[in-house]
Here is the input.
Amino acid sequence: MSTAQSKQDPEMFDIAVVGGGLVGLPLALGFAQAGFKVAVIDAQAPEEVARAEFDGRVSALSPASLAMFGQLGVLPHLENRLQPVTDIMVTDGKVGGRAAPFFLHFDAADNEAGPLMHMAENRHIRIAAQKAAERAPDTLHQIAPDGAESFARDAGGVEVRLASGRVIRARLAVAADGRASRLRAFAGLKTVGWSYDQMGIVTTVEHELPHDGTAQEYFLPSGPFAILPMQGNRSSLVWSEKTALAKTIMAMDEEGFARECAKRFGDYLGAHRPVGPRWSYPLGLQLAHDYVSERIALVGDAAHVLHPLAGQGLNWGLKDAAALVEVTAETARVGLDIGSLAALERYQRWRRFDAVSLALVTDGLNRLFSNDVGPLRLLRDVGLGLVGKLGPARRFLMREAAGGSGDVPKLLKGEPV
Amino acid sequence: MNPKREPPASSPASAKAPSGKRPRPKTPQDPSQGPQGVTVDAGEIARFSAMAAEWWDPRGKFRPLHKFNPVRLGYIRSQVCAHFGLDESARQPLKGLRLLDIGCGGGLLSEPMTRLGAEVVGADAGEANIKTASVHAAEQDLAIDYRATTAEALAEAGEKFDVILNMEVIEHVADVDAFLAACAAMLKPEGMMICATLNRTLKALGLAVIGAEYVLGWLPRGTHDWRKFITPQEFERHLQRQKLKVNHLTGVSYNPLQDRWFLSGDRDVNYMLVAVPVR
Here is the structure.
């Protein structure tokens, strides 16, 4: 069977997107809107990824990301699933300790543009993107479920051999296949990074009192613990914990797990209990040294995995997607080769510096807070307290989180935060 | 700054494969045979393929040219669309136009023009350049009529074009009037010629010759002879003798911070113009 298929002529596309997830599918939508014939390949069937058990995580969507979803036709299918976040409380705390004072408080009053961000369940984003894809121009070809088995590259294009035996040929192949990207490995693009000896535990909690659109972030000695508002009286916990303890907690029965949650959650939302499945994954920082190679570009987690405390993972992936669509469209407009390094280097210059900057800032914050050392506690109490008092600095951080500011973080330009 | 005339084909060192990672191209078209019969000996393909890879490597020795390419392509596209009243938003706005790329080198203009829909003849007196360009076009699955010939010979053969690209050529030509007479003869009555060259100013001597060749090392020394640069006024007089008039003129400037070229009012170093037959 395989010998007969290996002789077949490849199906020709302008662009192949490997991975049709939270970043890959919107990216493919953007390419299709720009007039490119694009194949988006995903191992999972669309109906599979819509199930709650597939991905129960939530994502923060910045106003810029929502604007992009509006442009791509995703927003109409997502609008009534969004939970606006009007307040963010950042607190330094101790497990089981007395409620600590708020050190940093962002609210919508600081931000003329409305809610700071919106929370959405990942599966709802996937469903909305899928609905948009079904209404997209017919230059968008979704190939799912099917796996990318192997890759080959020559001077004119990249060939992707699929599990089904189909062969896709494109002038540009984009790796949107996540942190363990196989297309990145094929391209020989190296990553740097380290693990935090922390795991992220994610689950959903139902609570008695309304959250009023408030997100909480506690900096606990074991790592940040975030309570993110979902629709109704529900919140998503993103709980980072030392690896050994995280494994113990994950193995607990429901009662034990609920008890561990309660120690950290506090009682400000009344009675509460975890519902639905739990997920856990190792936390680490991973950055691709280069985002591009001849005919291949990386986006999203394939390019950068950040600490979740910034809540920017998806937003940054969508920024990659927006930049790559724009560069590719400009390249094609003047007749240049969309897969050439000359074109792709513009994308890399545009995005890589941003990602490295944010990664270093979040890495530094995580290291500063994930400990219980007395002098450091004092230092960060003073530091966060100061930031909280300085209106302009606070508003800058908010604009940055909203995705509306320039490409270069002020901290790295030596400007005050 | 004008690296286009660099003659890489004459250097044996340039023929070696870039890093060995580039596999032999797999193409529907036989790379040994250009569309109009530029023959590349089978034993030479690997060598010309390696040279093509070098021409097209944006991090390699043609880096300055790759940096310069988008701005001149954008200018050509918008000027051609305006002249012929074409749809700027189309994927292939130049469809139906016959275009000559004089001094095509490795094909850095011929390939984009083909993608934009034009029917392209790429001409270069250097046979190695033509072979290199032909192999690369075949690798990219583009049909381009490459010919190792001169403007004078093409005119002699009675060739006619809607668009003639005369980009970074004039400053290397021995007899400007004879060369422009050949170009004018090939231009259809409704056609247009787009030219780019370097001004003969002290600024150009400093930036394009001393700066680019001697200080920055962007170009091999001796690429340009400043005395052969011509001013826009001189260019215009040359064109008038061929019954051509200039109907658009722009400067091109470099922003070192962004490492990008842009159209500007400063014509002291690089400039581009559009010439059309006087009616």
